[in-house]
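User: Hi! I'm working on a homework problem where we have to compare a predicted structure to a textbook description. Could you give me the structure for the chain below?
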Amino acid sequence: MKSFLLSILALLIFSTTSWSQLVLRGVVIDDNTQKPLQHVLVENKENKNYAYTDAQGSFIINATKGQTITFFHSGFELTVLKFEEENKKVQVALVPL
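Assistant: Happy to help. Predicted structure tokens:
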């Protein structure tokens, strides 16, 4: 009985953890030209997940509210975003150096 209760408790803990993980979607553009940027490194600094933008500047990355997301592309300033709002598609404008 004790092992059964521990199994149930572990299941509840792990399922709650997976539910708290959200997805951040967005697009990255050049601040000067307003055109999408391809191959931007999008990194979640807390969980070390990363993604790259596609040809339309779009990205999807796992994040939890309050985590720090960085955007890096050669020739542009590093941009930092705090993930705060759920279900919102963000637009990030990178500033050329």
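For your comparison, note the following. The helical segments are 2-19. The chain has a mean pLDDT of 85. Good luck with the assignment!
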